[in-house]
Amino acid sequence: MALVPLRPGRAASRLLPLLCGGARSKGASLSPGAPGRLGQRRYKKDVLPSPDGPAPSVSITEIRQYLRAQDIPFHDGYSCLHTPSLFVGDRGDQPLSANAPFTLFIDKTTGSFLCTATLAEGTWQDFQANVEMRLRGISPIPPAKSEEMEEEMRQAREDARCIWERALPLWELLDEKETKETKALFGISQVTNATLKRFGVRYLRTARSLVFPWFSPQDATLKGLKLVRVEKNGGTITYVEETLPRFDSYLNLFGLPLIGRRDTELVLTGWELDALALHQAAGVASLALPRGTSYLPPTLLPYLEQFKRITLWLGEDLRSWEAAKLFARKLSLKRCSLVRPGNLQPRPLEALNQGLNVTKILRSALLASHKSIVSFRQLREEVFGELVNTEQVSGVKWTRFPELNKLLKGHRRGELTIFTGPTGSGKTTFISEYALDLCMQGVCTLWGSFEINNVRLAKIMLTQFAGRRLEDQLELYDEWADRFEELPLYFMTFHGQQNIKTVIDTMQHAVYMYDITHVVVDNLQFMMGHEHISVDRLAAQDYIVGAFRKFATDNTCHITLIIHPRKEDDEKELQTASIFGSAKASQEADNVLILQDRKLVTGPGKRYLQVSKNRFDGDVGIFPLEFSKASLSFSSSKSKVRLKKVKEEKEILANKIVEGGSGASKKP
User: Fold this and answer.
1) What is the average pLDDT across 254-265?
2) Contact of 585 with 563, CB cutoff 8 Å
3) Would you say the pTM of this structure is higher than 0.85?
C-alpha cells in the first residue's frame, strides 16, 4: 500500500453549508460560481515588500545598540532577543525592570517582535514607535490588524466553533466497529484513546475527517481547526488537509498548550498524528508544524525559544530531510538534531505501528552541525542515504512534463538552471507553467518578473492552473482563484531594471520568512543596467551569474534564471554557446534548457525543449512541445515522443566511423 504525502491544505469553508446551514457573513455564498460571488474578490497573492518601501532592514547589531541606548534589559536567545514586554505591567515612563518576565521576543533576522503574553506583534519600526510612546508616558498600543483580516479571523473562529461542536471524540462513537474502522483508515489503531483525549482530537462524521484544534496560547480559546481526511485511489492512500482559517493564516503549533514551562527538550514533527505517536511511544514533548515540511513561519520561533535541544523528525522521505536541515538553520544549528529517514527510521506514526523503539531512534539523531569533516566516516551515512533513495535524490518530478523527468530526472535544491529561447517563442509562458507544476507539489516558489508585471504573470499562471479561458467563464473565477491562492507562491514587486544586491537581499529575506526553495528570475538582462557603467557588460554579467550561483549553493535553493540569447540567424537552432554573454553562465549552471522554435514556411512553427546540459547524470536531449492557446499551456506531444539522448562525443564519432560518414551530423 503506497502512501502519498499530504496535499496542500485549503480553507474548510466547503464543509460549512452542511454543518451551519450555509450562513455566512456579508451574504457570501459558499457554492463555486453562485450569485453574489463575483462581487467578493479575495484574490491577493502575497508579494514581498520592495526594499524601497517604508520598512528598511535592520541588523542584529543595530537592535542591540538601540535596546542598550533605551535601557531595555535583554538577553540573547537562539533565534530571538528576549526583553520584558512593553504591553504588560507598569506602563509609565520608568525603565523596564530586569525582574519582569521576558515575554517579548525580537527576531534577530528581521527585527519583528511578538509578545507571548498579549499576542501583540509587529515590525521593528512598530517596536521603536511604542518605546518612544512609553518614554513620553503614553501607554503603548499594539499594532492593529486590518479590518478585513480581523473580520476574516473572527469568521474563521465562528466557523471553527460550529464544526468543533459537531465533532465527536473517537471513543464516544456509538458503534465500536465504526471506531475501529475509522482508526484503521487513518493508520492510528495503535494510538490509545488516552492519547487522543490528551491532544483533543475529534472526528467529524459528515466529512469523515479527523479534527485537530488550534487553541490560543494566551487564553486557550479556539482559534481554528485542521481537518484531515483520507482519499483512496487503488492501492494509494492520500491524506488531504483543510484548515480554518485559510492555510496562510493557520499558524498552529499543534500540542503547544501541553508544553510545560520547565520542558527543555522537544521533538518537532511535520504531522499531527506523528506528534501523537511520539508522545505515546516515548513520552517526549512533541509539536507538529502547521504546514508540514513546506514552511516554518518565523512568527512561531518565540514559542520554541525555551528549548535547549530540538530534534526534527519531519517524515520518511528525502524531502523531509532537506526541510529539516533548512529549518535547523532558522532554529539555530547548535541546539538541533535530525532524524535521518530510512527503512529502520520511518516517520513516528509508522514507527509506532511497526513496534520500533522510538526512544532509540531519537537517541540516534544526528547533530545538525559539526565543525569539520575529517574523514569519510562523517559522510558515509549521507552517501548511503543517497544510494538507498536514488529516486528521491533526483528531486521533485514534473507532472506536466514527463519527458523532462526522463532527462533531468527531477527538480533539485541548490542547483542553477539557465533557460533561454528566441524572442517571442514563449519563454515566460513556458517557465511559468514549469514553475507552477512544481509549486502545485508544495515547492515554495518566489517569482522575480522584471519583464512583465505581476498582474499579467498571475493571470497567465491562473489560466494554466485552471486549464481554461476564465474570461469566458467568469462565474468560475472565484473557485479557481481560491484554489490558486493556497499555493506556496510569492512575487517580488520589482519591475524593470534592478540592482543585483537589492534582488539578492530580497531573495534572502524570502528564504528566511517563507522557506523559499525555488526562485525564478526573468530575466538577467534587466539587472545589467544598474551595474557600474564603467564595468564591462560581460564582466557585470559574470558577477551577477556568480552571485546567483553562490546564493543557490549557500541557501540550498534552486534558481531558474532566464537569459536572452545572442542575435543570430533565425533559421539556425540555438546552442549553449548562443546564450548572451561569456561562457561563465553555461559553466556555472547545473542545467541548461533551450526552447527551440523552428519556423515553417507553410504553417506555424514547431517548438521543442532541449536539455543541453545536465550536471546531475549527463543525460541531454530534445522533445517536442504542444501549445494550447486556450489554457496557455505547453504539454509534451501526445503522439509518440521521440526522446533523443545525445551521446558522448567519442560514441558519436565511433558511430560515424562505423557508418563511413564524416562531417557534422544533423541536430536532433
Assistant:
1) 92
2) yes
3) no
